[in-house]
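Working notes for the structural subgroup meeting. M.R. asked for a predicted model of this chain before we commit to crystallization trials. I am recording the input and output together here so anyone reviewing the notebook later can reproduce the run.

Input as submitted:
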Amino acid sequence: MLYYLFEYFDKHYDLAGAGLFQYISFRSALAFIISLLFSMIYGKKIINFLQLKQVGESVRDLGLEGQVEKAGTPTMGGIIIILATLIPVLLFAQIDNVYIVLLVVTTLWMGIIGFLDDYIKIFKQDKAGLKGRFKILGQITLGIFVGSMLYFHPSVTMKEKLPVKYQYTTEQGVQILFADAKKSIKTTIPFVKNNQLDYASAVAFLGNDYKKYAWLIFIAIVIFIITAVSNGANLTDGIDGLAAGSSAIIVATLGIFAWVSGNIIFANYLDVMYIPNSGEMTIFIAAFVGALVGFLWYNTYPAQVFMGDTGSLTIGAVIAVLAIAVRKELLIPILAGVFLVENLSVILQVGFFKYTKKRHGEGRRIFKMAPLHHHYQKSGYHESKIVTRFWIIGIMLAVLAIVTLKLR
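Returned structure, recorded in token form:
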């Protein structure tokens, strides 16, 4: 809203300083600061409110050190993250930008699903929470919406860099490096020189008109990514600060990709896809990172609040949508490697247990407990050490993901 207000002042009254709001970097900085301050200042008020309403975590004793002491700690802290993100976004972003619309809808939709899950666990005393099929249905619905918007909306386009022989110079001496904007469902393959993959090629067997059906494969991929990453973040949220800190690293990295992809100069220099209007996502990302860092103020060991599914499901979905929007979804296994390993540890543990029980009559385990962070807890590591080391690994993976901009 402030963006449009100061744009009006700059256009009609030439107000000193109003032009600053045209710069994404300036608005991103403001969004980060406001988000951080909101989550730190009002976060405590929200925590007190949750305590007043007895919105406490019920802990099942799994024999983990310090676990019983966490019983009664307020949960649903994801509300802090959601509010601290959306308020500065509504203030400083172009709210009619298609990417901002997608991210706001994603945040609200998954926030509601996570809230319902937490509400059922706490107030209905049902530890299972929202039925799994309803969670999956919610993720599929979001995937259909996001995939449809990215495929059909006229504002979602990309410009491909022209080969040197087709470049030319205008009367002003400016070299034109990109073709006209067009619809595309191409994505980026990391570590490959000619690194563009067109999803439409997956249905080429359908004949000459195969591109008519490309939306089917694209939306299916979007649904899979949103579901996988959302559930991965949910599984990672098991010890104080792990999910919030790991997510802040991932989202900040995606912010670099969004800014580069939305800037024609840097897109040209780094030879990446130029995606018009995508740079506006940087404001949302800055607010989201600020919210996560502010939330960590209360979520680091010993946690004063847990994010609950309200936060974890939302975080995972937002990461997935950001990655898809900047055409870096194939980097998710690297960038969100912590989420991936946590997911795999559960899959392997359950699969191996069922296999050995069927084969030997007795279930056996690969890990002492899954997800993986609980395995290290069972091994005697303090949760602060586990979280810090996972953060370090997350930073290393983030650097590797950024390196893919030039390493091909």
